[in-house]
Amino acid sequence: MPDQLPIAITFVFFLGLFTVVGIYSAKEKENTTTDYLLASRKVNPWLTALSAMATGQSGLLFIGQVGFAYTIGISAIWLTIGWAIGDYLAWWLVFKRLRIISGEIESDTVSSFLGYNKLQGSRLITLISALITIAFLGSYAAAQLVAGSKALNAVFGWNYQLGIIAAAIVVVIYCFSGGIRASIWTDAVQAIVMIVSLIILFVVAVATCGGFNQLWQSLAEIDPSLTDLSPQDLPLGFVPFLIGWMVAGFGAVGQPHILVRAMAIASADKIGFVRNLKLVLAQITSICAIGVGLTARVLLPQLISESDPELALPYLSLELLPVILVGLMLAGLFSATISTADSQILSCSAALSQDLFPQAANSYKFAKLATLTVTAIVLVIALTGDDSVFALVIFAWSALASSLGPLLVVRVAEKPVSTLVGVLMMLGGMATAWVWKLVLGWSNLIYEVFPGMVAGFLIYAIAQFFFSQPEAD
Fold first, then answer.
1. What's the whole-number mean pLDDT along residues 96-120?
2. What SS3 state is found at 361?
């Protein structure tokens, strides 16, 4: 184990840098709930792109995706490609309209947008979507705290509980310093650290393996399936597999912590720029993460049987990098988890303070109290839940995409939808995804976001076919 003091100094330096950025952002803040939740809809597009990339990839990239590539090999690239295509379509088809309409109707939260009606708002839709947000986005945030804790455990030997608590404290500092603006500003700096640290480790790891050709040969010697571009054991074949991950990427339309970035941008006309920049940056980090997972399989083969493949990145950093760069890598990993967790906790606190208790919607102090409350809930989930980051994130993502995604697309298209149909779309989509995964066990056939979102749209189509006019709210 290398000297931990230089690692700790570098790590603390970058954490301090992130915190300073968050506090500095407070110079522009206004003590209003709209500013706390949406930065008064004035966010720079460069910051939006960097923030969206950082908060969208999170601990899933550094911990889950690296571990996934370590386990199954180069075929993990199809998850990245499919996800990127779906995510691009979401930003192209939905997010610009979301920014325009949410600004026109002055919706500060995703749930209030879903429940909006020109004649009379649907309180039930707002209420149910807020509960779904708190339950599953809270679980998603808990996965980020677990990911950060795993990194601290691997490098410093801290127990998971201590690391989770430390991550939660940092999240509260970010959130309190300036709300969503502080989150976005720190995300931007964290994104740069993420990119730089991953590129450095990827290049060093490939060089240590003897170059790309030698890496490929070594993987083939370990297990020929690791170099097979076609994923193994696909009962329905490759095309349904890829479509499932494309729909998963499109499931960004059901993720409140990502949607609020589109709602907060200064101009809807800049959404295209954000979409393209985010795509490029996300593919750089994703390819590097997969490369790190593959090189770790060669350089640290014992992880598959003696440890946790999701710890491949911190262990590989300790093995290959100078201690100063290990601190940089740890800061990159930790910042990836925090950049997502703070965004998700803010979205959950918005659902709590604005949607569940609308009588306190204009209270800036209550918004902060809601942030503390949600953080406590997330902390409990993280301390008592599953320690698999990949499994936690994938399940939470599917539940949010299946329940909120179809209804949001319908709302963005400004199509009529009654309270009953909206509720059925949310509950039906979520139930379908659950049954598909937990009862039928068909997630290995196609990721459950696909049947979940299809069910939501199908419910709407059936309602429109049988009822030409929506029921009155």
1. 85
2. coil
Q: For residue 222, what are the contacts with CB-CB under 8 A and spacing of at least 6? A: 297, 298, 301
| Among 28-42, 316-330, 420-434, 443-457, the range of highest mean pLDDT | 420-434
Give tens-digit pLDDT for 33-72: 777 778 788 889 999 999 888 887 766 677 778 888 998 8
- Model confidence pLDDT, tens digit, residues 162-194: 878 888 887 787 777 667 888 888 888 888 888
- 450 pLDDT band, cuts 50/70/90, is very high
Taking CA 44 as the corner, what is the angle to CA 42 and CA 46, rounded to the nearest 5 degrees? 160
Nearest C-alpha neighbor of 407 from the set 466, 451, 457, 347: 457
